[in-house]
Design a protein that fits this description.
239 residues, alpha/beta, 2-enoyl-CoA Hydratase, Chain A, domain 1, globular, EC 5.3.3.8, Delta(3)-Delta(2)-enoyl-CoA isomerase, ClpP/crotonase-like_dom_sf, Enoyl-CoA_hydra/iso, delta(3)-delta(2)-enoyl-CoA isomerase activity
Amino acid sequence: MCRLEKTANNIFVLTLTGDNEHRLNPTLIGSILSALREAKVQATSGSVLITTSQGKFFSNGLDLAWARAAGSKPKAIERLTHMVKLFKPVVAELISLPMPTIAAVNGHAAAAGMILALSHDYVYMKRDRGVLYMSEVDIGLTIPDYVNALFRAKIGSPSARRDVLLRGAKVRGDAAVRMGIVEGAHDNEERLSGATMRHGIQLASRKWNGEVYKEIRKSLYPELCVVLGLGDAKVIAKL
């Protein structure tokens, strides 16, 4: 499950709780989506979201064990397809959230876990533990259209996208910085938490209008927004 807290600095902290792999099954996906919608309801000018997790995993992707528990292969594929569809609104909610967003990746972020991280505006990692990893090429799964659009939007280098998607590269913190995927890599959880919170406080101090921020973000990723079904809204906050 997850927990949403709000600090005195107008920062929402969304934490994936527990020491497991934070596999994204319908229950956890629903919990994250509910938390994001709650943050949106409570948002004011200057709000910021930081997403992190407990344990050694940020998220190890969709819950394939839950899919296989359906029994037959057709039923397992049906469950997997269902999770892929359920996860799309999480990406859409993050791309259209009316505040800056930061992912503090303090452990492994694989497949849908990496997608969750990249759906934020800024990503920070630990240097000593954890990788970004798209496992689909290794386990024999294709990649949904909204995920492909997200990668084209968020990873500018074609060679970096190739290595992540076609080689199944397990990218550690320093390499992810060099590839332009993350903002920074830090030696331990304390430094990672400190860096993301400092960045969050700096962003919150600007007290930007969330609706304006959201629409500018959406304008950066037009292809992704079309795939996610996010329309345009004309917002003028000040003259």
